[in-house]
Structures are given as C-alpha cells and as structure tokens.
Amino acid sequence: FDGINKKLHDLHLLDTVVRDAVSTVAYKYIEQHIQNTCRGNFESRFLDSLEKWLTTTVMEWFRLLYKYDTGAETEGALKSLEDHLRHFLYDTYVMARVDQLFNIIIEFPESQAALEDLKDCLERTNLKSKVIHSLKSSMEKRLLHPGVETTQILTAYISAIKALRVLDPTGYILQLVCEPVCKYLRTREDTVRSIVSNLTDDSCAELEGELVKFTPIAVEDSCLSDDDDEDWQNWQPAPVGNEQVQVSKGARSSDIVSMLVNIYGSKKLFASEYQVLLANRLLSGSFADTEREVRYLECLKLRFGESQLHACEVMLRDLADSRRLNTHLASGETPGYTAGEVDVSAIVISAQFWPPFKDEKLALPPPVQGSLDRYTRAFEAIKGNRTLQWRPNLGQVTLEVDTGTRTLQLTVSPMHATLIYHFQEKARWTLDELSSVTQASATLVRRKLALWQGQGILWEESPGVFTLGTPGDAAGGSGIPPQPLELDEDEEEAPSAMASTQDQKESDLQIYWSYIVGMLTNLESLTLERIHTMLKMFAMQTPSTAELTAQELRHFLDGQVAKQKLLYSGGHYRL
Fold it and tell me: Which tens digit of pLDDT belongs to each residue from 396-410?
C-alpha cells in the first residue's frame, strides 16, 4: 500500500487515481460508524466522540495516504477535506436521528442527550425543513387517528413541547410540527376534560409541577403578537430563510399550561370544565379531600383569574357548611330533630353556582324518604326561610346486604340501593314492576341490576324477571344462566352527576335564542357578525353560559332557518 502510494505520488497521479475511491469509502465508513454507534441509544451524547473519531481515525488515514506530499497545497486540501467530512458527519447524524425523532420525543427527558446533539448538528446544517417534514408526518400517522386515546395524544403533545424547546428554543419547529396536533385535538369532545383532569391529578407525571408555576395565562387571539418587547432579553431571531413564519409567544414560552389552554383559546371553557370536574369530585363521597381541592383551586385562580373560578369557591364553601350542618344535627342539639331509620348526611348546595345536574327521577323507599323529610324540617328550623329540594339520584349509600350465607358491606348509588331494598318486600320482581316502583326507565333499571347479578345476589329467572339468590337455589336450577358482569362506563367509573356538555350546550343555545328573538324584534334584521357581537356583550358575560363562536352561531341560526323560525336574505337574519 505504502509503496504504491509513493509510486503514484512520484508520477503525480495519486490524487487523480485515488480521490474518488477513498472519498466514497470514507463516506460509507462514516455512515456505518454513526449507525452502529448511535442507533437506538438516546441517553448519551455522541457528537464530541464522533468529531474526535473523525480527526483521529478518518483524517489520519487520509494523512497516511498523502504523507509523501508535504506541500502547503496538500495541507490546505486536507484541511478543506476535513471540513467537508465534518459537515457530512453532521448531515449523516441528523438523517440517522430523523426517523427516530418521534421515539426520542416520547422518551423525553431520558432522551435529552440525543436532542442536544441534534440541536448542535442542525445549527451547522441546512436540514431543519427535512426534520420538520419528517416529524410532522410521524406525528400525524402515529397520533392523529381514532385508535389513539385523547390522553395519549396529550401526553405526546406535552412531551413534544418539552423536547422541541430543547431542540429549537425559538419555537419555530414546535409551532410547525404541533399545529396539526392542536387542530386535531379541537375536534375531540373530551380534550378539555382530559386536560383539566390531568392538571388536577397528582398521578399525572407529564404535568407534575406545571400548575404551581404562578404564571397568568395569556390567551392568544393571534400568533401576530407585539409581546416580544416584554421579553427582549430572551429574544432569538427566526431561522434564516423562514422569516415568513411568525412564531407565536406561546410556542416560545416555557409555560405548558398556557399552550394547552391556547389549543382552544378560551380560559372560560377550561374554567367551566373544571367546575364540572370539581362538582363530580365533591359529590363522589360524603366528604371529598377538600384540602387538596382548595390547593388546586388556589393554583388555578392564579392562572385563570379569580372571576373565572368564583363559582368553584362557593362550591367548596357549600361543602364546608354542609359538614358543619351535619355535625350539628348529629350532636342532637337541634330541638325536635331525631334521626329516622336511615342516617342522612347531606351536601347542601347553592344551585346557581353549580353546573346543571342530570334530570333523573328516582322514587326512594318510604323509610328513606321519611328520613329526608325529617332532615328538611330540621334545616328549615335552623335556616328560617330556606328549604331543601332533594336530588335523590345523587350521592352514595353505605349498606349491609345479608343473604343468609354471607354478608356484604358495600357503597353504592341510591339507585342500586333502592333496587335491592325492594327485594326485602318480596323475592321476585319483574322489570316493569321495578321500573314502576322506582319511577325509572326499564333500561336504566336493567343496567343497574347488573351490579347485583355480578355479586351473585340476584339472578334473572326468566326474561325480565329477577329473583333473589342464584340459579342453583331454584328447584331444578332452571332459568337464564347468570351473565358475566359487564359494567358500562357509568358503572366502571363514578357516574357523572352533571349534565353532559351537549345538554349544557343545548340549554345555553335556548338562552341565546331568547336574546336573538328580542334583538330581531326590536331591530328587524341583523347580520351574523352583529348578532354575535351583541351576544358577546350581553349574553356571554354570565358565568353560567358558555362562549359561542361565530361558526357555532351560524350553524345554530341556519338550523332555525331550516325550522322556519328565521328568514335569511342578503346576509341578514329576520323573524
């Protein structure tokens, strides 16, 4: 090898003969070395060691090849070659990481070392657009489809926010890559609920500590913001060649909660969802963990403002007042009050500050209703001119079920307790009889009976006929075999006591409709924009009504036109 090189050098043919061949070998060697060294390992930094390897191994080979040519021209050529190979190494490292970038983001912060190497390489190459296109495509293919749960999409989105800020502090990559994710999340009905639930859940590692960062949320009406002046010390220029993309303040900020809220651009929407979540938590037991809820509420007030969460303060105050009332009644100090057959511990709520409840009927057994009536009279004696309106379908019942062979201690819903109570009167009931005595639908009754079937306390003797015991207790063991317990969503989790988002939306639309009728009666005809502006001024200022976008208003008004309640002509609506 050395002898051939010397002869080629003497003939002035060395560079002509070997340049292309050795360059091709060097490129392949670099690619192979990077793949073998880095692929699948995101927890260590490799760029410094790769640069050192390039200098001590690859370039030493080239210096050995050209050792007989010691002129300044050769030294200059070798220096130029080293710069070229170093740039090729950066390009190759970026391309090796591009296909793995989605996994790198999901594994953040363990993968921070790989992101820091990639950041250094991107600053020295022109592959940022390639990285953006590849990552954007991966996010869309692997996240944005019905097979992925909303919580999983949010987890990946939060990881992307954290990881891409390491990769690109300007927020340029983050904004372009995550824009489709934000648009897709807006189409999911449970996005707001999932965000609020995760924010106020101690087990959510992705948002741990984010809520306690006391940064007020600034909702962005547009990505074109003049707020750069407020943070001029941390300002960074936009990437060269991409000046046409205006990076939003949210993409540059370090506040993840603000970015989650800005998916919808409405603090009121999130505050309303938290109110529903809080209501369900407070009604899920006799007394919830109020200290934890107060702590969350104080953090949220710093984020969303006190006015948005005033109703939640009242809800927590209702719970504290109810605790004192129950303690007072249980002490026996209330004249004329004695507990009935059933011990009652009530949560007395200020209805106008709570979200709407589900409208479900339930006729309670006479002893239970009698205990509630006693409680009402005692409350009226204490509070003077105030009384109670009971919602018998809400709350929890702690009971003991004795089947003769075993005793069960259970905490169930009032509907479950009412159904099993009636089997004390007689051992066999039809579905229609139970529906009549409880004033609930047969469908709901059958669904609730599934719990007692699953516990082996009831069985379906024949279609629509339920009996105490198990099939083996009956003569000959005939009847419908017990079905495996398949709990629906209402049974697997604590059923929501509040009206669904869709039901609340319909209720709000009826309120808006009364405003619209009044406007059109007085002003004869109005454009969509004028109606929306007036609704924002007068109807959307109350805490109990949700915001209505112009698109939602157009859809609602078009529906009223289809029902022939409105006329639409020349861009104007009229009665």
Answer: 888 888 887 888 888
